[in-house]
Amino acid sequence: MKALSIYAGPRAFNAIKKHGLSSADVTAIPAAAGGPKGLILGPLDRFIFGQWLPTSNQAVDLVGASIGAWRMATACLDDPVAALARLEHDYIHQDYPLRPGERRPPPQRVSELFGANLKAFYDGRVPQILQHPRYRLHILTSHGRGLLWREQPWLTAVGYLSAYLGNVVARRALGAWLERVVFSSAHTDLPTAPVPLPFDSGDYPTQQVRLTQANFDAALQASCSIPFVLQAVHDIADAPAGAYWDGGVTDYHLHLNWRGLVLYPHFQKSVVPGWLDKHLRWRHKASSFLDNVVVLAPRPEWVQTLPNGKLPDRTDFTRYGNDLAARIQDWTCAVDASTRLAEEFAVWLDRPDWRSVQPL
């Protein structure tokens, strides 16, 4: 049984059919929100950033939300293979112990522990990310509007209910409640300005802010702050005032209007626009935005061979409760098995057979 499937939009497919796929072709790499699901992409990340991309020298935009932002920021560190391996270890071993009577830990405790872990992870290394000679990092966050401008008991719940209902009517209507704010690396020629976005942002209300040493920690934590699971991050330096939540709320799988050839290691074939679209199946189809995208994703039948017959996900925190050892064991098993994804991609790159590429 093979583990990896390769999908491509029509323009990307035609390019592969003509001349295969070279690391020099890639202009951007997205990284989706999705919590522990992103763990199985660790071996692919280490191969791509440790072995494959170094064979070229063009600038590459790395765009991430939530765990995707954590992955892409880590790929910018001086030794990305070791750093990505540490990310994998730290994520698997994170622990939010339940106290008597608790079904889940309160958001304040999760935010405090998670924020401390992020700061320890990047301590002293943020300049490596901001000054990377090739990689231009873009961290996606969701900035509250209206009732969601500040996190407040009850009003935030009402605000998200209103956002959900508006999103059902039209995705752009979600913009009345949450806008996309992108924190981007500085432009080398204009150090006070962010680099251009690698996608057309006309699809959704968007603001762009320069990513700096002063706002890096807050921006990354905000991008990972799942509503009602973690607290919002407020008033990030150099950015519009207000509350910031998980970038996956507005851009779950980064279904964006991409420019240039995009290589997308993903944990499934579907590229779902926003977190509130998870159950809106009609929004899970490919669009013209993905015409130049190549998706690397695990085959569903291979996923069924993993512990519990699925990818690691956030429900496992409740499933395993305080049995940390069991969760660590099963998540580690899943990640170890996912080395197959990287191995199969490397084999395909040596002889890129376009006939094995499926339509996205």
Describe the structure.
Strands 1, 2, 3, 4, 5, 7, 8, 9, 11, 12 and 13 form an eleven-stranded mixed beta sheet that branches. A two-stranded antiparallel sheet has the order 6-10. The chain has one domain. With 360 residues, the protein is an alpha/beta fold. The relative contact order is 0.20. Strand 8 and strand 9 form a beta hairpin. It starts with a strand and ends with a strand. The protein is 34% helix and 18% strand. The protein is built from twelve helices and 13 strands. Helix 3 runs antiparallel to helix 4 and helix 5 packs across helix 8.
Strand content is 15-25%
Mean pLDDT over the full residue set: 96
**SS content category:** alpha/beta
Please provide the count of β strands.
13
How many DSSP helices? 12
- What string gives the helices and strands in order? EHEHEHHHHEHEEEHEEEEEHHHHE
Gross geometry: globular
Instruction: Give the biggest beta sheet.
Output: 11 strands, mixed
Keywords for this entry:
360 residues; alpha/beta; 11-stranded mixed beta sheet; two-stranded antiparallel ribbon
